[in-house]
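Aim 2, interim progress: modelling of the adenosine monophosphate-bound target.
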Amino acid sequence: MPEEIIYLGFGSNLGDRQEFCDRAIALMNLLPLSRVTGVSSYYETEPVDPEGRLGESWFYNGVVRVESSLSPTRLLGILQETERALGREDTDRHGPRTIDFDILLFGQHCIDQPGLTVPHPRLHQRRFVLEPLVELDPALKHPTLHRSMSELLEAIQDPSRVNKLDIKPGSKYRSRLACSVPPLS
Ligand code: AMP
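Predicted structure of the complex, ligand included:
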């Protein structure tokens, strides 16, 4: 596969949300054929279900930009395995989750296959997705709506609250540094 710029959304609203998001970023750094080229701030966000109803357990959300030669299907498979490894249960799709990943954008590709729709069909309706996307790449164009992420954010109707947090993303798991070989003395 040629290399593509991919935007992945992540979120957690169960347990130590910062810890799960930090682990998610550490694992994104280990994706094969890929490198992480951007990580948004964390945002604490009010939960909304697909019918637009507000819930109780607030999320931590963010977006990672990855340059990757993985196929969309392989990437989705790895993300779903990672969700399971981080303790996500599949019993209630809209219930609390330790970690949730979404493939938001895969280059400018449009994918519509069983189990995978890209661009993510609700991307343009969700403040908790658009705010971190705008932080990373405000001029990035939506492949089918042909509007930039900042234009989509200006037009959004979503009333849920989204608060940018003053936390360094990934700060609990600097795994590469921790594993680096000490200099010879
Ligand atoms: P969720 O509970 O929001 O993580 O949704 C997971 C389900 O959405 C899985 O069955 C995926 O196969 C499906 N899905 C469809 N499109 C996407 C996408 N762009 N990113 C992640 N999951 C997707």
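The domain at 4-122+160-164 is CATH 3.30.70.560 (Alpha-Beta Plaits). The radius of gyration is 16 Å.
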